[in-house]
Amino acid sequence: MELAGRILTVDIGRVAKQANGAALMRYGDTTVLSTATASDKPREGIDFFPLSVEYEEKMYAVGKIPGGFNKREGKASEHAILTSRVIDRPMRPLFPKDYRNDVTLNNMVMAVDSECNPEVVAMLGSSIATCISDIPFDGPCAATQIGMVNGELVVNPSLAQKEISDLQLTVASTREKVIMIEAGANEIPEAKMIEAIFKAHEVNQEIIAFIDKIVAECGKEKHSYESCAVPEELFAAIKEIVTPEEMEEAVFTDEKQVREENIRVITEKLEEAFAENEEWLAVLGEAVYQYQKKTVRKMILKDHKRPDGRAITEIRPLAAETDIIPRVHGSAMFTRGQTQICTITTLAPLSEAQRLDGLDEFEVSKRYMHHYNFPSYSVGETKPSRGPGRREIGHGALAERALVPVIPGVEEFPYAIRTVSETFESNGSTSQASICASTMSLMAAGVPIKKPVAGISCGLVTGETDDDYLVLTDIQGLEDFFGDMDFKVAGTHDGITAIQMDIKIHGLTRQIIEEAIARTKEAREYILTEVMEKCIPAPRKTVSKYAPKIVQIQIDPEKIGDVVGQRGKTINAIIDETGVKIDIDDNGGVSICGTDQHMMDKAVEYIKTITTDYQEGQIFTGKVISIKEFGAFLEFAPGKEGMVHISKISKERIEKVEDVLSIGDVVKVVCLGKDKMGRISFSMKDVPEEA
């Protein structure tokens, strides 16, 4: 089919025939092999659907050999992990809820055409491979990316268009509804964002019609499977022991620990009652979960009662403070109910920016990095730390995407910036709390961000019809766990900077999306105005005394080699003497970073001296480094030398240079130009008295 002016080709049945489903995808010259495979039998002892989504970046796809010592692809990059999550989110809700067979969706990127994004191809490939397989799946779904260049919406933008786009939006849809939204934006107004979402939804319908034709021609019959649903008789028996009113009382509290203790007591009571029935005991945990879920959903949807007693649009108690950690460059803590995040900001020279080795030709480094950590103690659990998982990487990337549009340019603020969000306590939407904490931490660190950014999440509970639903502002963990949606939106007063939407149902109507976006805007405005801006109204005028200071100067790009010197001799000499860090870009921009202002000024003076065209009459200060019969050699900047002839040392006649000068002496000289050998020539005796 033709898709956004380029040809999308799907090749079925030629490769990977032993997978349950396989599609060799080609969009332009971008080529991805997508496969879907399921185990023959359900995995025992689990109460969830074991889906694994992989996105493999092969460096040969862009004609590169992997960097580092090990010249083969290693663990997945952060970009690959984030792409896997974007594929997972629309696919997962379309599998049967009681399916327990292991399923793996694998996407191998084999060639990349800069005009055609491999992420979109992999998303479509996963849907097609699963639809034509015998794996139970209520698809198809399709995905489209939207950019905005010069105010115009662009379908599936090329890499060149993405570089200048104010919007990076990915939307997945089923036949009727939107099932996933992921966006990064440069303060896009809500109305424009909604327009972009439904432009993508329209394109998705064309793709779904194309997939339907493929399935009709190549699709296998779906296999039957062993259902793991909880027996209805067990539900009936549970309700005789624990009435709906008792379950409602157990979950109706704003204290997570109290609620968990109440459920533990109920579970023990039921285990005792069903001690003789091993079959029921095996699924009792799932049954109690389902009972809680039905109770909470009924309370919210029918009675408009939330477990913690809040109104439908009410935000939990908020608190914000800065400078809670000493000596770091910036810190802030944001608390929303039982969700608490502390973010620490670190500033460093531009050489500390992160280098990226991936398939994206444009993004080779980034100077703003956001990392998110979620230790087990934040939810009252105990388990060893094994480093960040996919969830932590995804939450960190979401917060980073939300804040990038307000980070000042290199010209204004020549630092590499890292923010680290530590989750102290978690009960719903820590990723959005980390955006609020990071904004304040950046401001406390003296980063002149353009505008403050806040984030909030809305939830959803649906009934039997599209019109029977309730959108909840600021969902806590229980409402996320038992609800149908986690709709996260971050932005400034003026527009949206990031969206991430996860749902557990088969899509959202336009009415729900518009209401959720409007609700998050209202909440975001309140958080910014009433909490964050009252805590810290503007970025600090200066960076912390513990942060490195950076001075920027501009030199002639043709003089870069003079500053660096042969094999780095000159620049290393400046660094060794002054203790600063020096970064030079290809355009002649020089950043001098240090903590001692005197030494930074000295390094600046050296660089200016080295890059100045030496003209007659210029005054320099130099150190005697060598004495000959005919004169003395002076070093007037690291790696830069000139000579004072014996006749130019003193106004009186001298027999030997050593009568006036010794090695190590520091003297003032005036430039006489260059001698016949091209060396810079100096005079001591002709230095003006006022110099």
Automatic annotation (TrEMBL):
Its main location: cytoplasm. It comes from the Bacteria. Keywords: Cytoplasm, Magnesium, Metal-binding, Nucleotidyltransferase, RNA-binding, Transferase. Its EC number is 2.7.7.8. Residues 617-685 form the S1 motif domain. GO terms for molecular function: 3'-5'-RNA exonuclease activity; magnesium ion binding; polyribonucleotide nucleotidyltransferase activity; RNA binding; transcription coregulator activity. It is found in: Cytoplasm. Residues 217-296 form the KIX domain. It is an enzyme of class 2 (transferase). GO terms for biological process: mRNA catabolic process; regulation of DNA-templated transcription; RNA processing. Pfam families: KH_1, PNPase, RNase_PH, RNase_PH_C, S1. One of its GO terms (cellular component) is cytosol. It catalyses: RNA(n+1) + phosphate = RNA(n) + a ribonucleoside 5'-diphosphate. InterPro entries: ExoRNase_PH_dom1, ExoRNase_PH_dom2, ExoRNase_PH_dom2_sf, KH_dom, KH_dom_type_1, KH_dom_type_1_sf, KIX_dom, NA-bd_OB-fold. Its cofactor is Mg(2+). Mg(2+) binds at D480, D486. Belongs to the polyribonucleotide nucleotidyltransferase family. NCBIfam families: polynuc_phos, PRK11824.1. Involved in mRNA degradation. Catalyzes the phosphorolysis of single-stranded polyribonucleotides processively in the 3'- to 5'-direction. This is Polyribonucleotide nucleotidyltransferase.
